[in-house]
From TrEMBL:
InterPro entries: AAA_dom, DNA_Partitioning_ATPase, P-loop_NTPase
Protein name (record): ParA family protein
SUPFAM superfamilies found in the cross-reference section: P-loop containing nucleoside triphosphate hydrolases (SSF52540)
Domain AAA: 144-315
Pfam short name (any one): AAA_31
Length: 438
């Protein structure tokens, strides 16, 4: 809980101690001072910033501790299903379900209720759809999707985490999916590996070369070990931490060094080395990118073979996305010169569209018309359930309606509409793989 105090006095540090004593503030509360009506000198300003940083860190840590007490390797809980939900997820009817869990010796009792978790659902899918996994042949490449828009807050991370989780939970093919978080803000990492520790390797460590290989260990093995399991079977994450932002500086220095020596600098090589090391283990790799165009974003655009551009349905966002496309055109000319073979798909995706707002649906439809063949058949709708789940760093596919503690119909409704989008993405993936075999 935050306690916001508006102070007119100048000495923030002394007043913090005083107010803490008076209010008997303990560690459960964070205090944010808003100093108004007075000028602060630079030291006082710094003290305010330090206090804000410390308090928000404390508050985040409390939240993180709450969401990392679960049974999954990333500290979250495995999704559970009641009988109806388990039947829907596996396309079985009730009688077939009872027989299948019996055949597979799955314990489905939670007190008097039927309850199985996502690992059991995975077992049932494996048993029922035994040939379905063989969708990607050795002739097919992994689908590498960059989710990108230079404008901040357009839903890149939400799309990355929701689509990657949904591809694993909502389809029967049991795709092996990896999310590589390339945004040093680390939001996708917090969704998929909230229990990241200082000892864990990150994508930044691999990019910067911040590692020492054990004797006999190869880079490929280290890169594979940096793909951590999540609370969703078949979904892994290569996380990032804020200090990995340093890669931008390291990469710039490398560029200067190479240019001084009269050699060509290839910015995407570090990320490509990682992708090459892990891509055999995954069918789909999703890259969440930051809202700026540095070495990480340009590398993501280079290593990707598909692109999703989330766009918010507002006039300002339309304008900035249009500028982003101008920029992308210029940037792609450089990527093309570096040898990029072209994207298999580019999808502009109107995101967080409120279907009750005429203005938003009208802008979304203009975006759709302007994008003609380059968009999915449906939009990613706005939903209170997405925000609710986000508070606990969950996507809408991390939990079933039966375990959701707010309005269940709102979760079900956004799950249903987003499932259509997941199936549209799946159809594109299948199409790309089919074309490759021709
Ligand atoms: N479909 C949606 N319905 C409701 N809220 C949404 C939806 N999509 C995204 N949001 C909310 O919008 C905010 C911004 O989303 P998100 O963090 O995914 O954007 P981003 O493009 O990754 O931002 P950044 O550029 O900072 O990385 C978040 O609070 C998220 O919960
Ligand atoms: Mg983001």
């Amino acid at each position: 809980m935050f306690l916001v105090l508006e102070l007119h006095q100048k000495n923030i540090a002394n007043h913090y101690a005083m107010v803490e004593t008076i209010c008997n503030i303990n560690t459960k509360h964070s205090v944010i001072f808003i100093a108004t009506g007075c000028h602060m000198n630079s030291e006082e300003t710094l003290a305010v910033f330090e206090r804000l940083a410390e308090d928000s860190q404390k508050s985040l840590k409390v939240d993180r501790n709450k969401i990392t007490v679960g049974d999954a390797p990333n500290g979250k809980y495995f999704r559970t299903y009641n009988q109806r939900e388990a039947c829907d997820a596996t396309e079985l009817n009730h009688r077939q379900m009872i027989k299948t869990i019996d055949d597979l010796s799955i314990d489905s009792t939670d007190g008097r209720k039927f309850c199985i978790d996502i690992n059991d659902v995975e077992k049932i899918r494996e048993h029922l759809f035994v040939d379905e996994r063989l969708v990607r042949t050795t002739f097919n490449k992994a689908i590498i999707v960059a989710i990108s828009n230079l404008k901040g807050g357009t839903g890149k991370t939400t799309v990355t985490t929701t689509f990657s989780t949904g591809l694993c939970t909502e389809t029967q093919k049991r795709y092996r999916v990896l999310v590589i978080d390339l945004d040093p803000q680390g939001t996708a990492s917090m969704y998929l590996k909230p229990n990241i520790s200082d000892d864990d390797f990150t994508v930044g460590d691999l990019l910067i070369g911040n590692y020492a290989l054990d004797e006999g260990e190869t880079f490929e093995e280290l890169a594979k070990a940096t793909c951590y399991p999540t609370n969703t079977p078949d979904l892994h994450v290569m996380p990032i931490r804020p200090s990995d932002r340093n890669y931008e500086v390291v990469s710039k220095k490398k560029q200067n060094n190479e240019e001084e020596k009269g050699r060509e600098f290839i910015v995407y090589e570090d990320l490509k080395k990682i992708i090459d090391a892990v891509s055999d283990d995954f069918d789909v790799i999703m890259l969440d990118t930051p809202p700026n165009f540095g070495a990480l974003t340009i590398s993501a655009h280079y290593v990707a073979n598909s692109l999703i551009v989330p766009v918010l349905p507002s006039q300002n966002d339309r304008d900035s996305t249009s500028k982003y496309f101008d920029f992308l055109t210029e940037a792609y000319k450089v990527i093309q010169l570096l040898g990029h073979k072209g994207y298999d798909s580019v999808n502009v995706l109107p995101t967080a569209v409120d279907i009750h707002s005429n203005a938003q649906t009208s802008i979304a439809s203009k975006v759709r018309i302007a994008s003609s063949n380059n968009c999915f058949s449906v939009d990613f709708l706005e939903s209170e359930a997405i925000k609710n789940c986000a508070e606990k760093q969950n996507t809408i596919f991390d939990q079933s309606a039966s375990e959701y503690d707010a309005t269940r119909s709102s979760l079900k409704s956004i799950q249903n509409s987003t499932r259509t989008l997941i199936f549209a993405l799946e159809a594109q993936i299948q199409q790309i793989w089919r074309e490759e075999l021709k």
